Amino acid sequence: MRRRALLASVAMAVSAGCTSEYAPSGPRTPPGADDARSEPGTGGSGDGDEDTPGLFILEWDFFEGEAGKLVVEAVVGNDAETELSGTVVVVATGPDRSVEATEDVTVAPDETTDVNVRTDLEHEAFVRDGELSVDVESN
Asked: Measuring CA to CA, which of 15, 36, 46, 72 is 20 to 30 A from 65?
């Protein structure tokens, strides 16, 4: 008998959430693949097709290097069936300037490689008010 009462109260509690009226969120028609508001793919070789295998940034971090400069450590992966080469591009912005630094990389198929990209930006300035962009471009 208690089981029936418990099941009935659970059913009422679950269905009560389904019948309340909430305004829907988001657009009525989400952007499609050809819509200018849609972002291009981010995976693969960087050509806008995320299904195309290629070089990609798996993860990244930053630290203070020699002479107090910002260093970005990136893990670059290759999901292609052949060895690929590319360039890791780092754009670091501090309170008063922006710098770009690059480092060439070659990654075996289905492997990852660690890359350190050294910049001319002071680590202290970056930590106080900085932004960072890390990307890989296939050669």
From this structure: 46
